[in-house]
Amino acid sequence: MTLFPTLAVEVLRMVIFEVQMGIEQQLKELERRRKRGMRLLAEGLWPAEVARRVGVTRQSVLRWTKLTEQGGMEALKRPERFGRPPKLDEAQRAQLIKTLKGGALAAGFASELWTLPRIASMIKERFGVELSQPSVWRMLQQLGWSVQRPAGRARERDEAAIRTWKERRWPAIKKSLRGKAE
Fold first, then answer.
1. Residues near 163 by beta carbon (within 8 Å), at least 6 away in sequence
2. What are phi and psi of 82, to 5 degrees?
3. pLDDT tens per residue across span 90-139
C-alpha cells in the first residue's frame, strides 16, 4: 500500500520539474535519462528496475536497448528537429521570400497587397504544394515576416491643404480650447 503514494509523489514531482524547465532543458534532460538508463542496464540491472529508477516505462527501456544495439550511444541523442518535415525546403523558402519581396503585382496579382489566400495560391502555383491559410501564416512567422497593414489614406488626400490646416487652423483651435479649460 505504501508503494502507490510514493509513485504518485515521484510522478507529481517529475511533472512539476518538467513544467518549470524550458523545452531545450527538457530535451537535454530526456537525453540524460536515456543515457543513464543504458548505463544502469550495462551494470546488469533488469529493464523493469532501470525503468523504475529512471522514471519511464519498461517498453521505453527496451526501445532504448534496441536503438543502442543499432547505433550505439549516439542513437540516444535527441534528433535535430521534431515533428513533420516542412513542406517547402530551404531553396523553395528562399525563392518564396524573393517572390514576396518582388511584390504582388510582379507575381501577377491585381494590386500590391499580399494576403494569405494570395500567398497560398502562389505557393500552390509555383511549388505545387497546397497550404492552408494558418499554415501559410505560421511559415511567414518562421521566416520573420509580420502583418503590415496599408495606411488608410484617402485617394483624394490634399497634402498642401493638410499642411496649411496644421500650421494655421490647428494652433487657433488649440489656443481657444486652452482658454476655455481654465
1. none
2. -110, 165
3. 999 999 999 999 999 999 988 888 999 999 999 999 999 999 999 999 99
Burial classification of residue 74, based on how many CB atoms lie within 10 Å of its CB (0-12 exposed, 13-18 middle, 19 or more buried): exposed
Q: Which residue has the cell 529512471?
A: 54
pTM of the complete model: 0.49
What does the pLDDT average to over 15-35? 74
Largest Cα span, the chain: 91
Q: Which residue has the cell 505560421?
A: 138
Is 159 exposed, middle or buried, given 0-12, 13-18 or 19+ CB atoms closer than 10 A?
exposed
**pLDDT exceeds 60 at position 10:** no
- Checking 143-152 for CB contacts under 8 A at 24+ apart, the result is 143/93, 143/96, 143/97, 145/100, 150/113
Contact of 120 with 137, CB cutoff 8 Å? no
